[in-house]
Amino acid sequence: MEVILFYLTAIVAIMSAIFVTQCRNPVNSALNLITVFLCLAVYYVMLESPFMAAIQIMVYAGAIVVLIVFVIMLLNLGLAVKERYTHGMAGSGVLAAIVLFVANYFIRYGEATGTGGSVTSEVVASYGHTELIGRAMFVDFLLPFEIASILLLVAIVGAVIISKREV
Amino acid sequence: MVMTPEVLTLSETPWLFSGVMLVKIAVAFVVTLLIVAYATYAERKTIGRMQTRMGPNMTGPKGLLQPIADGVKLFFKEDIIPAQSHWFAFILAPMMILAPAFIAISVIPFGGDLQFTYDGTLYAVPMQITDLNIGVLFIVAMAALGVYGIVLGGLASNSKYALLGGIRSTAQMVSYELAVGLSIVAIFMLSETLSMRGIVAAQQLPLWGLESVSFIPNWYIFCQPLAFVLFVVGSMAEINRTPFDLPEAETELVSGFCTEYSAMKYALFFMAEYANMITVSAVATTLFLGGWGGPFYGWINFLIKVFAFMFFFIWIRATFPRLRYDQLMYLGWKIMLPLALVNIVITGIAILLW
Fold first, then answer.
1. Distance from CA of B179 to the nearest CA of A (A)
2. What contacts 24+ positions apart, CB below 8 Å, involve A42-51?
3. Which CATH number does the domain housing residue A46 bear?
4. Contact B145 A63 (CB under 8 A)
5. CB–CB of A34 and B166 under 8 A?
6. Which of B235, B230, B260, B236 shows the shortest CA–CA distance to B322?
């Protein structure tokens, strides 16, 4: 049952990912991108991390793609953009193929994956996924988390200052 | 002899489980649709009375058949798709605004457990379609998807007014989502669970754990009044109700994002507005007013509270004028967002001290 669901979702995800790059209309690309994110959310649920699934939909599908659509709406991007950026297609295709191969090689033979940590299905079921993430972020890795948030704050302030004509 | 009821599971009794699930979905869906239909009638009647008019009173006794007549009329009208529109997004938009509103209802508990005997075993069925352990986040995520209906409707129509409505709604919904999401965080901190069922259960204890005032339930409106106000105001902005209906502002944008829509697609936008209103009322009831807890039998309390909220939204519509666009952004970013953050900090300090 789960295998069937996995492959169905995978087919939808890959088809939509192809359409993201192939659609002539940027709006349809954005719509397909939402579908890809929804499929990823399904995978998070299947990996017993419902919190990540909700965040995936909220942040990526709910906020980031909305901003992309917002930009499409404001700039009214048409086919002109497509023609301007077609020259690098072959190069980027080769690059993508190499990256895919290398990433797959590392996933298959590397030491970082497949070892398994202390967080198993039983731990998630007994303790709760949201609680585990909260503990990791605010207790175990508090300092890196705070550093990351300060970096983001600096980036936001910088963006505001650059976009303002007079500060 | 008191039997402890069994919980239905998919693995042990698949057919019974699926049957009960389908019945629950059908009941929730049909009731929501009925409320949507008669909410239009209630709104027109109420606003009519508030403006010393009669409201619809010709179709059927006291105008009660008016929603059905409107539905039939819109159903048989010609469906026009503008020639220069993105037809796919144009058709998708009304569905994308209506679906999240209905999906969000699936995690809301309508009442306590319902018990029945089947084949000699006593089963308990919660009156809730499903209880996710991330229930509240699920609702916030679905609300985030609801924005696409309006954005795509505005973008696909290929019309100036629709585009302006779409741009306004994008900015408005993205900014108010933050304030709404942050106001709910204070509730999680008190209930220590994200499940809607758990939040309702936490609100049935006596107020602040004090036995002396045990006649008052521990509804979160009493300990989180600021979060409640932020949630209701922010939700009104998210579902585009007056005074935040800038995306459709009929005096300046004709009809905003749904200018080019006609027939059943227009009706879907119209239904979505009321379905969203029901969803927001149900969520506010569950989070702040103790869900189905109260003096009467489970779902009756729930419906009373939801109808009270809907009356409140209609009342607001008859009372307040529309905000100007800069006032809207000012309210969202400079007043509601800081207040929500302050509320979280105060709640955190209070939890640490007590």
1. 14
2. A42/A5, A42/A9, A43/A6, A43/A9, A46/A2, A46/A5, A46/A6, A48/A121, A48/A124, A48/A125, A48/A129, A49/A124, A49/A129, A50/A129, A50/B132, A50/B133, A50/B134, A51/A129, A51/A130, A51/A133, A51/B134, A51/B137
3. 1.20.120.1200
4. no
5. no
6. B236
Residue A90, in any domain of the structure:
yes
Residues A61 and A99 in one domain: yes
Same domain? A148 vs A76: no
Query: Is A39 domain-assigned?
Result: yes
Query: What pLDDT score was predicted for residue B267?
Result: 85
Q: Is residue A113 part of a domain?
A: no
**Is A91 in the same domain as A44?**
yes
Would you state the pLDDT for residue A148?
A: 92
- Strands of B6-7's sheet, edge to edge? B6-7, B121-127, B111-118
The pLDDT tens digits for B269-314 are 888 888 888 988 988 888 888 777 777 777 888 888 889 988 998 8
Same domain, A85 and A126: no
Residue A67 falls within a domain, yes or no? Answer: yes
Q: Are residues A127 and A95 in the same domain?
A: no
Q: Does A63 contact B at CB distance below 8 Å?
A: yes
What is the domain count for chain A? Answer: 2
Contacts of A55 in chain B (CB under 8 A): 137
Number of A–B residue contacts, CB under 8 Å: 79
Q: Select the residue of A27, A70, A129 nearest B170 (Cβ to Cβ).
A: A70
CB half-sphere exposure, B308, CA atoms < 13 A: 9
The pair of structure tokens assigned to B282 is 């149900």
Mutation target for B interface from A2, A16, A31: give the one with most B CBs within 10 A. Answer: A31
Which secondary-structure segment (H or E) carries B112? strand B111-118
Give me the pLDDT at residue A152, please: 93
The residue out of A103, A130, A159 marking a domain boundary is: A103
Would the CB atoms of A130 and B194 count as touching at under 8 Å?
yes
Same domain, residue pair A141 and A67: no
Token readout for B71 is: 């539905």
Claim to verify: residue A75 and residue A151 sit in the same structural domain? no
Q: A35-49, B126-140, B227-241: which has the minimum mean pLDDT?
A: B126-140
**What number is the ipTM of this complex?**
0.77
Tell me the torsion sign for CA atoms B171, B176, B179, B182. negative
B100 and chain A: CB distance < 8 Å anywhere?
no
| pLDDT single digits (tens) A5-16 | 889 999 999 999
Using a CB-CB cut-off of 8 Å, the residues of chain B touching A34 are 148
Q: Which domain holds residue A145?
A: 120-167
User: Which DSSP string do the residues of B15-65 spell out, in sequence order?
Assistant: HHHHHHHHHHHHHHHHHHHHHHHHHHHHHHHHHHHHTT---S-SSSGGGTT
B91: which 2 tokens? Answer: 């058709």
The HSE-up count of residue B62 (CA atoms within 13 Å, CB side) is: 6
